[in-house]
């Protein structure tokens, strides 16, 4: 592999070049986790927050960066998923199952996203994020996810595609819900 040249580097993102190809990378993280969180009663726990790059509120599965803080270096992927779920939603998961590890956007970044299925949720904290995060938590009946997401889009929110990927990976196919 040829050496990587730094073009520009900020606090959260860097722009690099390798073999004539420019790409971005987070200088302060080792990857991303996302959690399809299933609450009792077949409810999906989703989060909403304003995302500056797209200048809009975005509906997402709870997610976060791996190894982005000094106190969390060396934390396992499942440990990061558990911590992020608690920070963003206030829920603790009894089980955390890895569904898939996949490139986030292979033509733009080497970042890998690790999607988890969190089950057996128990509310133990306030959620809402940490620091300056302003995360709104939504509980959506699994059977109503499609129509709920559509209504949020019609209201001006964007919907992150990881929701659909995680639902598919967990066995939720349209109106034929296959979750145990």
Mind explaining what this structure looks like?
With 180 residues, the protein is α+β, with helices and mostly antiparallel strands. The chain has a single domain, classed as Nucleoside Triphosphate Pyrophosphohydrolase, CATH 3.90.79.10. The chain is 17% helix and 44% strand. It has 3 helices and 13 strands. Strands 4, 5, 6, 7, 8, 9, 10 and 11 form an 8-stranded mixed sheet that branches. The protein is globular, with a radius of gyration of 17 Å. 22% of the residues are buried. The mean pLDDT is 92.
Supply the key terms.
three-stranded antiparallel beta sheet, 180 residues, alpha+beta, 13 strands
CATH topology: Nucleoside Triphosphate Pyrophosphohydrolase
Q: Which stretches of 5+ consecutive residues score pLDDT under 50?
A: none
* Count of helical stretches: 3
User: What amount of the residues lies in strands?
Assistant: 35-45%
Question: How much helix, percentage-wise, in residues?
Answer: 10-25%
Shape: globular
Structural class: alpha+beta
Regarding quaternary structure, what we see is single chain
Q: If you compute it from the alpha carbons, what radius of gyration comes out, rounded to the nearest whole angstrom?
A: 17 Å
The largest pleated sheet is described as: 8 strands, mixed
Task: Kindly report how far apart the N and C termini lie.
Answer: 45 Å
Q: If you average the pLDDT, what whole number results?
A: 92
Instruction: Indicate how many domains the architecture comprises.
Output: 1
């Amino acid at each position: 592999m040829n050496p990587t040249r730094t073009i520009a580097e900020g606090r959260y993102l860097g722009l690099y070049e390798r073999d004539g190809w420019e790409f971005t990378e987070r200088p302060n993280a080792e990857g991303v986790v996302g959690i399809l969180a299933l609450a009792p009663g077949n409810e999906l726990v989703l989060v909403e927050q304003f995302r500056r790059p797209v200048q809009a509120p975005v509906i997402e599965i709870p997610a976060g960066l791996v190894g982005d803080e000094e106190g969390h270096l060396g934390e396992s992927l499942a440990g990061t998923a558990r911590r992020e779920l608690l920070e963003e939603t206030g829920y603790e998961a009894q089980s955390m199952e890895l569904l898939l590890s996949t490139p986030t956007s292979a033509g733009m970044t080497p970042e890998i996203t690790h999607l988890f299925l969190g089950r057996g949720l128990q509310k133990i904290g306030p959620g809402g994020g940490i620091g300056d995060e302003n995360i709104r938590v939504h509980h959506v009946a699994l059977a109503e996810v499609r129509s709920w997401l559509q209504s949020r889009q019609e209201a001006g929110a964007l919907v992150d595609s990881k929701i659909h990927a995680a639902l598919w990976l967990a066995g939720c196919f349209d109106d034929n819900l296959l979750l145990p």
